[in-house]
Design brief:
Length: 352
Amino acid sequence: MNPKSLIPKLSRWVAISIITLAFPALLLATPQAPPSGDVEIAEYIGMDIDQDQRLEGARIGVELNDGIATLSGTVESLAQAERASSRAVANAGVRAVVNRLQVNPKNDSEILKEARRMIDGQNMIVAEQVSISVSDHRMLLEGTVGTWDEKDLARDVISEVLGIVAIENALTVSGRGQREDSQIAEQIRFLIHKDPVFDGLDVAVMVKSGSVQLRGQVGSSGEIGRLMRRCHVDGVTGFRTSGLKVNGDLAMEGLVDKVYSRTESLAALRDALRADDRIYSKGLNTSMEDGVLTLTGNVGQVAESDAVESTARVIPGIVRVVNDLRITGEDDRGGKLPDIKVASSPWVMPPL
């Protein structure tokens, strides 16, 4: 197990500690406390994002209002945008994130070449089943894969390609996929690697006949629970975590594991969409079952659909987003907040 190798946090709270050591008279007068209030928490999240080496090249600003963080600025890839959102929502003071980050576009031919290289270079899905096309920096995935996990994985792998501004995942799931142990193991390693809560942890993943065994050290018992949830992928028949040990020295500062109920996830999504002035359609509906959020209804523009999906993807408790929104091409903006309804649920958003 290797200790975490992140750059030490140069937050206001560390800076205060340095000042008090240099000036003992301030020791009693300057209490050391975690960030509180919208401004302090936003500053803390901004510095945390700045220290993430996998967000190199990104320029991200953070605002916080009543537990809803808004990220704005530019990133190099969709994966960077989603990672920044994941870091923000893992903060104890944040319930949801409005992702307004814009990807710096690249040449379509370069995007297509790199996407093909990346999809061909992984072992989690059968690359030949995935067809890729690019137009105006937007990517379309078509073809057939065996499982829902493989559909999601194709999108996640492609999201790391620089310059893609949006991905439409039109892959069809046959439901006849038979997954090998090596595919399952690579998928779990991939999911651990992309999760900022596990930064710097060296967790070994072994899979035999569908049974997963994890070994290594983590920072808390909550991280063990989070790893167990990551292991619930297609093809897994069971898992063992007896090889995981808790070492409090490895706990990730500032990031916490969050487990939302279905009602909490939908409420957080509702509040985030209300806070996003890019979303104005009145016919937007959501339903959620077993962590799968389905978006239906009509929206005016493709950008509005993208905005809804990007915000939904990082809500705790939502493990998959099915975007069935219909683009009408009509702007029905009427100066009112969107009427976001929740279908198939006893919980309904109260009237504004």
